[in-house]
Amino acid sequence: MANPLRGEVVTLYKNLLFLGREYPKGEVFFKERLKKAFMKNKDVSDPEKIRELISRGEFVIKELEALYFLRKYRAMKQRYYEDGPGS
């Protein structure tokens, strides 16, 4: 019988792959780390542990989004304040 949480895990993996395209150290670096993390936990069968790992993955998604938004904010700020605010 297939695990009912498998769909959530696959969706999480796809979302992380998508977000990894803009990772500062490169997409290849991110993909390798992501695959390694998922392969390390591939044999986990306890539903509670799987939910815990999914919530950790969702936290990583939020952190990556924050990183990207901050980078975009800094780029916009540099365009409008070339010398920095207060100069």
Main features:
87 residues; mainly alpha; ETFRF1; Complex1_LYR_dom; Complex 1 LYR protein domain-containing protein; Complex1_LYR_ETFRF1_LYRM5
How does this structure look, described?
The protein contains 3 helices and no strands. The chain has helices at 6-19, 27-40, 47-80. Helix 1 packs parallel to helix 3 (47-80). The mean pLDDT is 87. Residues 8-61 form the Complex 1 LYR protein domain. Belongs to the complex I LYR family. InterPro entries: Complex1_LYR_dom, Complex1_LYR_ETFRF1_LYRM5, ETFRF1. Pfam families: Complex1_LYR.
In terms of per-residue confidence, which ranges show pLDDT below 50 for 5 or more consecutive residues?
Answer: none
Q: pLDDT average, as an integer? A: 87
Question: Which structural category fits the helices and strands?
Answer: mainly alpha
What general outline do the C-alpha atoms trace? elongated
Discrete helix count: 3
Largest sheet: none
Cα-to-Cα separation, first versus last residue: 65 Å
- Assess the beta-strand content as a share of residues: under 5%
Query: What portion of residues is helical?
Result: over 70%
InterPro entries: Complex1_LYR_dom, Complex1_LYR_ETFRF1_LYRM5, ETFRF1
Protein name: Complex 1 LYR protein domain-containing protein
Domain Complex 1 LYR protein: 8-61
Family: Belongs to the complex I LYR family.
